[in-house]
Amino acid sequence: MPLAKRWAQQIRSLPERRYPMRRVFRIPFSARVEREVDDELAFHLEMRTQRLIAAGMPPDVARREALRQFGDIASVRQDCVTMDEQRERATRRAFEMAEFQQDLVYALRTLRRNVGFTAVVVFALALGIGANTAIFTLINAVMVRTIPVADPGALVAIGNPVRVSSLSQGGPRTDLLSYPLYKDLRDKNHVFTGLLATGRTGRLDVRIDGNSELEHPQGRFVSGNYFAVLGVKPVVGRAFTEADDDVIGNAPIAVISHGYWTRRFHNDHAVVGRQIVVNGARVTIVGVMPPRFTGEIVGADRDVWLPLSLQHAVQPNQRMLDDRLSSFLLALGRLKPGATIEQARQEVTALIRESVVANAVGSSGKDFLASSPTYFVSDGSKGFSRVRTTFQAPLFTLMIGVALLLCIICANVANLLLARSIARGREMAVRLALGANRARLVRQLLTEGLILAALGGATGLLVAWWGSHALVALGGGSSTGLDLGMDLWVLVFTLGVCCASVLLFGLVPALRASRVDLATTMRANAHSVSGGALGHRGQRAPLGRLLIAGQVALSVVLLVGAGMLVRSLRHIEKTDLGMDRDHLVILDVDARGRGYVGPRTGALARSLRERLSAIPGVAAVAYSMNGIFSGSESQTTVQVPGFTPRTPNDSVINFDEVGPGYFNTIGGHMLDGRDMASSDEGNLARVAVVNEALAKFYFPGQRAVGRSFSFADSVSIQIIGVAADTREHSLSGVPTRRAYFPYVHRDTMVGLPGSLHFEIRTRGEPTAVVQAIRAAVVSVDPALPIDGLDPVVSLLRQSLGAERLLARLATGFGALALLLAAIGLYGVMTYAITRRTGEIGLRVALGARRADVINLVLADALRVVAAGVVVGLPLAIATARLLRSQLHGVETVDPLSIAAAIAVLSASAIVAVLMPALRASRVSPIVALRTD
Amino acid sequence: MLDRDGGLLRGTLDVLILKALSWGPRHGYAVAEWIKIVTDEELLVEEGPLYTALHRLEKNGWLVAEWGYSENNRRAKYYQLSRTGRQQLRAEVTSWERYSRAVGKALGAADPLTT
Lengths: 932, 115
Description:
The complex is a heterodimer of chains A (932) and B (115).
Chain A: H1 3-12, H2 30-54, H3 59-70, H4 73-113, H5 115-144, E1 155-158, E2 168-169, E3 177-178, H6 179-188, E4 192-200, E5 206-208, E6 219-222, H7 226-230, E7 236-237, E8 253-256, H8 258-265, E9 275-278, E10 281-288, E11 304-307, H9 311-314, E12 326-335, H10 341-359, H11 364-370, E13 377-379, H12 387-423, H13 425-433, H14 438-474, H15 488-514, H16 518-522, H17 529-534, H18 542-573, E14 584-589, H19 591-594, H20 599-613, E15 618-624, E16 634-637, E17 652-658, H21 662-666, E18 670-673, E19 687-691, H22 692-698, E20 708-710, E21 716-723, E22 738-742, E23 756-762, H23 770-780, E24 786-791, H24 792-799, H25 801-835, H26 837-845, H27 850-882, H28 895-921, H29 925-930
Parallel strand pairs in A: 6-11, 8-10, 17-22, 19-21
Antiparallel strand pairs in A: 1-12, 1-13, 2-12, 3-12, 4-6, 4-12, 5-9, 7-10, 8-11, 9-10, 14-23, 14-24, 15-23, 16-17, 18-21, 19-22, 20-21
Chain B: H1 10-20, E1 26-27, H2 28-38, H3 47-60, E2 63-69, E3 75-81, H4 83-107
Antiparallel strand pairs in B: 1-3, 2-3
């Protein structure tokens, strides 16, 4: 064996002392690098050995001496191999970078040459990516983002985050706090560095000094430490301090938001010190908050913050600061370092219990505790929000919808690219012939796809910005309460979507384009009969048809989904309310705000009722506290003799306070006993009408009329009538237990009725009497504010805002999907027909009629659609199962929606291929065969 | 400068290699022999570290390597200077001359010059 080889063998057999793991992670060129190092070192040792032999040493001694002179050959070999590998890696990386740059430049040039094509693709991608980003932005803003305060992760929310504008009177609650209870928590806890409270202000009537026009900015009552606990500093003036909350009424000040400052005060720094009149009380503005801070409520606009100590001045008819029975506050506490939310929960629970027991009147405290209430103590980093729960499910549904839309758009783009790649066949063939390998071609085409996706993504961000704002407006919300700005997650999401799109629409065309048969493509004519009919390897452009089938499948999902959502909406809208919904108008007046209190409210109610009944076209009038679909509801706990509650919820009932003839007016149906009458009103009223649900629940199998139940303070109420269930506040779910007390009663039960609604039943169209109603109100009291005057049907529609938006959007997506599928089908069919021109010409020459050719094309198209439908139906059913919670009254397998979807798809397909089919039928056999 | 074992410190070895290749491509063995001969065997170059240095210089981009055939028709790896290698050699020579002049001045001083 030659000396060098022997040396090489010996070196290679040396143990890899230092890098044993390298044996596992062998890099491709590692073998070659090692071999070269071995050869080099072997060469050196051989030369040295020869020299020593020539100097007279015997061969084996010479070899040993050469080795000795070299030194530690094993570690030298290691080091050399490592360094060579690094060098190779660096060289390769540089090479790849250069190649990528080349690809980029070439791709940009190619795209610029076909500006039209590029524009269409970028536009389509922008639509798809933008829609996805828009929905994600909304999800991010409503559900993921934390409120813009210092260290939101340390905040703990006390109270139910949904109840941002709630007011409860009548007893301690687990989801809201009263002001005295809040103070107990604030002063006695050891787990928070600060505990703030916020509560609703209701509608504020504000006059800016010097301006006599009434405004209604969005206000919120907050504790003095609100801004300090949140860690937000004013940009002008000062924020509230704890001293502002100390004594009731000693701080007639306000802090305004940046948006309000810009809108109403034009960024005037002299706003500090200006006085405004809020509900008749003079208040001085002391500070302005930074931009983008709208408080602790997500999705709600905020203009003005008022200290809680001002509540009595601003709402003189509803003083709640000393009342342990009025709960209207939610609290946010900042945890001390090291404290956990669990500790907070335990301490809050203990403190509330302690406070309730210490201050309870009669047995109400024990009863409350006996029902083992669980308190709402949760993570506060996302603040409070009412929109979160309403829009959570619709948003996720939309997310699925736009994802499907993007897939369809990508399929279209893929088809477009495929079509173009056929045209570029010669270019690919030339490059292959010049020595490029397939991988390089694929990489280059993918780079084009990447640029398209990048451009589409960048434009998509604009689409997303516009789209998210538009969606919020459509949904009836205000976009200033939501932070729809771009943040890291949105960008990451967009990037991810772009990459996914490239893979979806770029990979297959790239692979296809690079698989070019050199011989056939280089030939000048590629339209021979055989070539046209058989295409590549005997197939008829299968990829394009596959993509269309895929598009059809996804469109089926969208269409069926849209159909189901629309049907679900119809179903909800048609839900029987148990009343004469088409002839009811609800009038909402702010009696308390105007100063009516106690018996004066009753007198107002009666006189207004008289005046309204006198309007021609009005059949009957009644009044109530909570109205119908007016956004407020009341609850209380009751004790029913002979009934043992199993859970605390069993003792809870909804209630309303109604005037005489209520059920008759609204078109309700009395099942037993009688309606509310004028004789029931008055200080000694101790009667109630209950609904069927309540009667069946508490008195199963017995006659409820004549029985009684009682409240916390042991007032016993007798049931005088049972009414059929009506839906006064919600369209979904089972009708809740409801009791109806007389509106005018002694104020021992649950406090004075604050709101006053009138239910006006009309003989004809409700809208016809609206003006007359307004005039009637003015004639009784010109200064009585009208908070609402709407027919029940439009109130219904408002309450279904989210569902209606969803149905509308789903229909829009379905239509868009249909359009895209139709366009795609048109394109693919046109191409297929062009390739089959020869075959068609042959058929015509052999006797086929025009109708036969048209049928041929149509059948082909419908085959593709059928394939898509077959794949899409199971997907649609699966998606429907996901959306189960959103679908009311619609089965997950809804034959109507499915049939409609298939019909619409087939119709669109036929329309789409009509033109190509007609064109094909006019092919002259001579022209067709001549190209062979 | 020499370390305790009479060998060379890394920086010096590098500049010697660069110089060795300044006349044209050579393989590693030839470089080793050149250094031995030209310094009259006063500098002991360990052959192992020499190869480590050669590979390191190649990684740094100062040398480029090519496989060729030696005088006795064996496959050998030939190194030669790259453009940056030549620049590096010039820079190193200049700074070495400056250094040795300075040290020489200090060592040849006759005056204690205590201040």
